[in-house]
Design goal:
The chain is mostly beta strands. The protein has a single domain, classed as Jelly Rolls (Sandwich), CATH 2.60.120. Strands 1-12-3-8-9-10 form a 6-stranded antiparallel β-sheet, with no helix packed on it. A 6-stranded antiparallel β-sheet has the order 2-11-4-5-6-7. Strand 6 and strand 7 form a beta hairpin. The longest helix has 10 residues. The protein starts with a helix and ends in a 7-residue tail after the last strand.
């Protein structure tokens, strides 16, 4: 029984990084590097020139990340969020690149989880994050069933800053405020 479950789980994994995405897709993006550690650096969403919300969206942001595991995105109303503060925390490839999650507080409990590896230090993982006015936070990884992860918030309120980090001992290279165009 265990072998059958293991094989079906293993065969069901899909990688989110894109080996065919040209590095030219990163042109026009801003870059932020994280050497190691769980420290967020925040950027004001209103200053993004490529925030392209669709109908009923507060924001729609496109990112790329290179990391072994633990690509972290934080969306908040405060640029200096501390551990436990309320915010949307998106974990991509956490737990040694074995699963991803959405939380409503930094280091909070996972409100949504999805298994499988999504990060690579060699190939970009494309990420699109949007929030609708009625509180649907969506994380889209092109190539996965859309959305990859989502969270319905009955009182959406975190929409002023986006921040990037990684977990202790993991480096990450983020490309943000990326233009929307086809590769």
């Amino acid at each position: 029984m265990f072998k059958i479950l293991f094989v079906s789980s293993f065969l069901g994994l899909t990688l989110a990084y894109n080996r065919t995405l040209p590095y030219s897709a990163l042109e026009g993006c801003k870059e932020h590097r994280i050497e190691s550690g769980y420290v967020y650096t925040a950027f004001r969403i209103s200053e993004f020139k490529n925030n392209k919300p669709l109908y009923n969206e507060v924001f729609r942001l496109k990112f790329y990340v290179f990391c072994h595991s633990n690509g972290l995105i934080l969306i908040s109303n405060n640029p200096n969020v501390q551990s436990g503060d309320s915010a949307y925390e998106i974990v991509l490839g956490g737990w040694d690149n074995s699963k991803s999650a959405i939380r409503n507080a930094t280091e909070g409990r996972n409100l949504y989880e999805k298994g499988g590896p999504v990060c690579s230090p060699l190939y970009p993982t494309e990420v699109i994050v949007s929030l609708t006015k009625d509180g649907l936070l969506s994380v889209v990884l092109p190539g996965f069933q859309t959305p990859f992860m989502f969270l319905q918030d009955s009182q959406p309120s975190y929409n002023k800053f986006v921040a990037f980090s990684s977990w202790k001992g993991n480096a990450a290279r983020w490309f943000y405020d990326c233009p929307y165009y086809r590769h």
